[in-house]
Design goal:
Length: 107
């Protein structure tokens, strides 16, 4: 197990991770540090724990939005399925129109 020192909001934390994951962990710490910096930029400086909590909420919100977009995209019919549904509906309408025309001819 590797140990990595990361800096968030000016504080250094030593964190353990799997071997080979050091650069990934440093990138994630940089992401959190960036969120903390953006919160501080708008004037919200209420202590370390609050800054980290707000940064966590921002990241969780972004993750939620990404999952929602992914689920929506997965649930949406692909172009082929949409084309098939349109073709089926047009066929149904054409058959109905023909039935109405036949009924009118008999009247």
């Amino acid at each position: 197990m590797a140990e990595v020192s990361v800096r968030i909001n000016g504080y250094v934390y030593t964190v353990g991770c799997e071997d080979g994951q050091e650069s990934h962990l440093q990138a994630m710490a940089a992401e959190v540090d960036g969120r903390v910096a953006s919160i501080k930029a708008v004037g919200a400086q209420s202590g370390e724990a609050r800054l980290l909590m707000l940064a966590s909420l921002l990241l969780a919100d972004e993750l939620h939005d990404m999952r929602l977009a992914q689920a929506t995209a997965a649930a949406a019919p692909g172009p082929e399925a949409a084309r098939t549904a349109r073709t089926r509906r047009l066929t149904e309408l054409a058959l109905r129109a023909e039935a109405i025309a036949e009924a009118m001819e008999r009247s």
